[in-house]
Amino acid sequence: MNSNILQVRDLRVIYYTRQGALRAVNDISFDLQVGERLGLVGESGSGKSTTAQALMRLIKPPGKIESGQVLLNDLSLLGLSDERMRQVRLAEIALVSQGAMNSLNPVARVRGQIEDALRDHGVKLNRRERAEWIGELLQRVGLPQTAADMYPHELSGGMKQRVCIAIAICLKPKVIIADEPTSALDVVVQRQVMETLETLRAELGASVILIGHDMGLMAQTVARVGVMYAGDLVEMGGVEDLFSEPLHPYTRLLMASLPSLEQKEAARGIPGLAPSLLNRPEGCPFHPRCPEALDRCLVVEPKLQTVRPNRSVACHLHGALSAAREAS
Amino acid sequence: MTALIEARHLTKVFGEGFFRRSNPLVALDDLSLTIEEAPPAITTIVGESGSGKTTFARLILGLTTPTHGQVCYRGVDLRQLDRNQRRQFLREVQVIFQDPYEVYNPFYRVDHVLQEAISNFGLAKTKAQGQNLIVEALVSVGLRPEETLGRYPHQLSGGQRQRVMVARALLLRPRLIIADEPVSMIDASLRATVIDSLKALNRQFGISLIYITHDLTTAYQMSENIVVLYRGAVAEVGDVEWVVKKPEHPYTRLLIGSIPQPDPKHPWERKEKLSDTTGNGRLERQGCHFADRCPNVMPMCRQKPPPLYQTAPHRATACYLYRDSPAAASEKLNDVFAPPR
Ligand SMILES: Nc1ncnc2c1ncn2[C@@H]1O[C@H](COP(=O)(O)OP(=O)(O)OP(=O)(O)O)[C@@H](O)[C@H]1O
Ligand SMILES: Nc1ncnc2c1ncn2[C@@H]1O[C@H](COP(=O)(O)OP(=O)(O)OP(=O)(O)O)[C@@H](O)[C@H]1O
Ligand SMILES: [Mg+2]
Ligand SMILES: [Mg+2]
Q: Is the pTM of the predicted complex or chain greater than 0.95?
């Protein structure tokens, strides 16, 4: 058997907007290993949520998965019928979507929301079994049993987020995608939620894709990180490797913009705007903002290339360097 | 001179006399804070989720009425503003809401939010002038106008939506902006950009800010003074340099110790007992709210809530560890604040 639970190949998602075709995810490829914790970071608007929705086949018009392949344990998700995909969703691969905790049904108790998810997936349990399972789910995400009978507005942000996680794991999926699960939570609760997610991952033997923008949180919780920029996956590597030596100039600037508690004004944004996804610039999408751009960056789009084991980057600087090294 | 906004003994209790909730919840407990017209100040309110931050913002905005205490705008209780005063209040006090998913009407394009602001407050004489203002505001928060305008809210990413709300506040040039977690969904580099544009507003146009967040790092970057709330009550208050670098209250210490460091080689400090804090609905506290989680808890902590002790000229802490210091002279948090730098 393959040790990759998920294989994504050349995934491309386009939103057909009034102004034209917007390439939100641009031919990205990556693997997720069994039991792995993978982080996906990137600028706001870089296509992280779109990627997550594409993996779940939840892209709605005017969006469309243009091309590519998503293999979940050798099952090709993009080829499945809608009905079959509906069964796979939640049962095999689940998403805690960005802002999910704000989309809990305000007039239904937590119990009802979990029951709905179970019913939607044709899970047949009798009343007692259902109550037991809901009790167990709540316990797993660290919520008191009394939470089952509460309404969303009676719960704090951290509790709501855990309800969403409980819904996501109610069918014990093998892959859990969490899109910014803790951005709205304070650091203490953030940590509790991440620890909850980690415990679940270990207990269910699941793999987790954590989407976020908080480099600190990534450093603390994932083993491997992918960096997205303007719909491209521009860098990928083990978390220690990537943090100690970011290769892509975007990643480097991103690291340099992290605010500190030691010095005021230390953090600086990256000058310039993210590129238009409607009219992608020629060459590397980062070249208009890149302090190190070469001539060829303006014309040739760099491909994600492996530069050393478990480390890849899409940048001509590294292509050029490695080429030079080979030549000498 | 009358203050722009004065919050006196602001208290909000949810669920009192409500048939559903068995025990009411004190979301905000006796907070007094003044925002002067000048000099413009940046004040941060931090606290865990559920500590009453948004409740405070809603009270200041008059979106919910206090159970006790009052909010005055230019000396007049919000409940007694006449039409003109109310109009002026709506213009002068702007809010950037925490949840960009809630504030938009899904059926209007985002242009509507911005154009409405311009026409409601007569910010531009001509359509073209209005359009220029919009473009300027969008660019200053790192958005591409041509790709933002004409879209429906669900067609923007989370961080893009959040920035449209910041752009709207920038457009209005009010006297006070209450920003409730304005950057929670955007990455560090953009965050620095948005924070810079908020700070520039403060400097160039003399706009005061109340910055509400759970993120101590941006709080530190942003403001001069900070109020740390814990379950609706002030835990610690004062000069941000001191509070962040030498936190006194055990809760502030926990917060700072839990900040995930962007360095895989420095893992989170070893697990303290992370008891489930998020419990809701307790009232009539016997003592300090934090007692159950506090590593330094003493018997006296469970008997009576600690007052604010003035531990230095520009800081005060509500914790019995500091009981040798004098109790803070006034309940007004401003009296503890460091003057603007
Ligand atoms: N329904 C839609 N129609 C048109 N464009 C869309 C739609 N949804 C997203 N987009 C655009 O696609 C791009 C990628 O959006 P996505 O939500 O994937 O970004 P993201 O990386 O998750 O950002 P954030 O960190 O801000 O959540 C953005 O430019 C966004 O404006
Ligand atoms: N309309 C309401 N009815 C009942 N309880 C409420 C209501 N609004 C807020 N609360 C409760 O009041 C407390 C304070 O909530 P508030 O939204 O002010 O917290 P917050 O500090 O903004 O938290 P977060 O960081 O999660 O946004 C919470 O326990 C919340 O559940
Ligand atoms: Mg997103
Ligand atoms: Mg809030």
A: no
